[in-house]
Amino acid sequence: MRRNNQVPQKQLISQWAEGPVSDQVLEPGHGRGIFCLSIQGDSLVTGSADHGLREYNISNNSYKRELFAKKFGHTEWVTSVDHLQDGRVISAGMDSQLCLWDRTGVRCDHIRGHDGSITKVLVDENNVAVSASYDCTLCIWDLQSKNQAARLHGPHKDAVLDFTWNNSLVVSGDKQGVIAIWDINSQTAIKQAKIHKGAVSQVILYSDGNNHNYIISAGLNDGIVAFQDMRTNKLVYNEQLHRGAINGLQTNLGGQVITGSADKTLRVIDIQSGFKPLANMKATDAVFCIETIYNLTVAGCGDGNVLCFENDTGKCLYGFGAMSQGVVRCMKINENSTKLVACGDDFSPMVISYV
Hints:
single chain; mainly beta; Thrombin, subunit H; four-stranded antiparallel sheet; 1 helix; about 5% helix; WD40_repeat_CS; WD40/YVTN_repeat-like_dom_sf; WD40_repeat_dom_sf
């Protein structure tokens, strides 16, 4: 019987809690491990340490193309990838350059401006991109003209490891623990502060539309999760939740913050009740990445396992081996929440289906 992807939400929630119905490894894979991925509609693009990217169709689990050629592509590891709304793909690499790939074929525009490895790139609906780098800067790019529109520098004296972006607001974190808040329209830093003892691993924004509007950051060295109130710029929560690097940081619609750490645990905090701890969940190995859906958290672990936890109780509902060669490094849930894609030390992505 053919399954319809337009599954009623109640049925889909139940299926996520019960477990996947099928999984498939996509071939051909990369020549080395996978470090990043992006999903838009049926298009999955993965970036690898083999210097290339590959595109697959996850509606029928077919291979489309390799984004690498003699004259086009990266000369080092691919570190980040994102889709433009028109179907083009932008990738970033340790070679300090961005590649803007055509929708079809194997051709890209090489966009240069950074002086160090690029850690992350994001693009918005207006074809404006933001990238962060080990050169201590962030760059704003006009992808229509393929030119650099602005370069944000000053607060960061070390590698910028992560950033988040909403409209004209960009918040970035660096290797020395500094968080900087930027207005990209004026190209200036509004505020900067050293929040963490050592590197910032994750930065996200949270708003419930009312009184809770926070910049949430996590530490790579200190295991601390920090909340800065965006209205007062004050630090309202700053606690060590983990004894290892925090590799995963996400929020859900229930006002919960979920963290995943190298100390083999996940923690859940309830923002609405004044940062009350809700659950302490134990994984089978170091947690390298997490995804949240409904009241569930999916964790990708160092032993290749993918585990699904219920946030309120902390119960592990199920788990399975997704990687046979090592770490699950990155995961994403597709737009209609019917599939989870897991990538890592295996050279091929795994598509896990819930319908």
